[in-house]
Specification:
Two copies of one chain form a homodimer. By secondary structure, the first copy, chain A, is α/β, with parallel strands linked by helices. Helix content of chain A is 30%, strand content 27%. The first copy, chain A, folds into two domains: 6-78, Ribosomal Protein L25, Chain P; 86-239, Alpha/beta knot (3-Layer(aba) Sandwich), CATH 3.40.1280. In chain A, the strands form two sheets. Chain A has a six-stranded mixed sheet. The first copy, chain A, has a six-stranded parallel sheet with strand order 9-8-7-11-10-12. In chain A, a hairpin with a 4-residue loop joins strand 4 and strand 5. The longest helix of chain A is centred in the C-terminal third of the chain and has 18 residues, at 222-239.
Chain lengths: 240, 240
């Protein structure tokens, strides 16, 4: 699918849109408001819409009211989620802005599965999941992605690991950088970044079945470690 | 040099410290205030200091007044600047918080040379260089680095390129990801990221002598592109 000046078109999220032949109809108060009032789209404008389940449709608006949108389909695509096997365990940080920033960047880079984890050395325990999931939708739309990202809460690393998967954990003293080859592996992975105070000895113990790696020769702030790890891993997932 | 619990010790920046044998003395109103009033260090505490020119000293405080610090040297190291050949051209962004965040993260990752560039499609032209250089010192200290980062202003891409060096520029439609090998090349490089509105056709023309690459299959916000490009390049500089 060719991106026709995406900065002028924009992507809208309608989880329940209905496609009939060459037409798509969609409703949803918040997104209709965003479409008409904020972005000021009108009949004849071309936009993208997604259901958040991998379908990306490019079309031209044929009818538009306050409540409903009708689109004539120009092209449609069903996208695989290349990031489905990867869950990012985000440490809950002292500063909520830095936490949100790290989360938003990881969504832009393509990750769709997240857990906000309370580690033993975390100094803050609470996150606003509703707010974060709204941020995630905005970042999905911004980056023209079609898989809805979701974030959940885990009250410990131990409980976050119970879903299974190979932990990839960042450790300043690890012998090598992230060299794991993900191409032919069907495995699931958990990207694990520690909180400001680092991992506890218990947490290091339960991570030992995983793969440790270094991100930088310097010392990174926790949110920098998240974005750097996400950048390096996403690059491998996208291009390896 | 072994990092003895760096989160408890901290790094302080004294550009004019004087070393005589096993002792170092240092003065500087702001940093002395930070050391004594904010971090509440006292005689017997162990700290790092740097001159911002590659010297990193670890020592124990033997004398401390409001104006002067004396340190007994435990270990000293002269570090090469692995990032000296690389200049990051940062697009001036609409949102100063996002610009600062991208800059701060790039410093933490190790870059020391920056230009804040007004591109033809930039919608904002001004940056506060004094404020940014203070941010840079904080990020240098935070990441335990010993080379002072500096940021300058360029009023166009053209003038930023006059310093010489091979442009590495991010382009969503480039055929490959960043695969340049920097090990044996003695060349200088300019990491170039476009502003929110993208490069102008004139800018793309003058970048054509350089190397273009993709960062992601998705669309990244400008500040995400900066941090992702810096993460990928820093990882090569650190470990290639």
């Amino acid at each position: 699918m060719t991106l026709v000046s995406p900065s002028d078109t924009g992507l809208f999220y309608f989880p329940d849109f209905v496609r009939e032949g060459e037409f798509v109809s969609a409703t949803g108060a918040d997104e209709m408001n965003h479409l008409t009032k904020v972005m000021r789209k009108k009949s004849g404008d071309k936009i993208y819409i997604t259901d958040g389940k991998g379908t990306l449709i490019f079309g031209v608006i044929t009818q538009l009211s306050r409540k409903e949108l009708t689109l004539s389909v120009l092209s449609a695509e069903q996208q695989n989620n290349r990031f489905e096997r990867f869950t990012v365990l985000l440490p809950i940080l002292k500063n909520p802005d830095r936490f949100e920033f790290a989360f938003e960047k990881s969504v832009e880079l393509g990750f769709t599965r997240f857990k906000a984890v309370k580690f033993q050395h975390s100094v803050k325990f609470a996150v606003n999941l509703d707010r974060l999931n709204l941020k995630a939708i905005a970042a999905m739309k911004q980056s023209l992605r079609s898989h809805l990202p979701r974030i959940e809460y885990s009250d410990s690393l131990n409980s976050a690991l119970t879903q299974g998967g190979i932990p990839l954990y960042f450790n300043q003293n690890a012998p090598s950088d992230l060299s794991e080859d993900f191409r032919d592996s069907g495995a699931s992975y958990l990207l694990v970044i520690g909180p400001e105070g680092g991992f506890s000895s218990f947490e290091i113990e339960i991570l030992k079945t995983g793969v440790s790696y270094r991100l930088s020769r310097g010392r990174l702030r926790a949110e920098t470690a998240v974005i750097t790890a996400a950048s390096l891993l996403a690059n491998k997932i996208d291009f390896q």
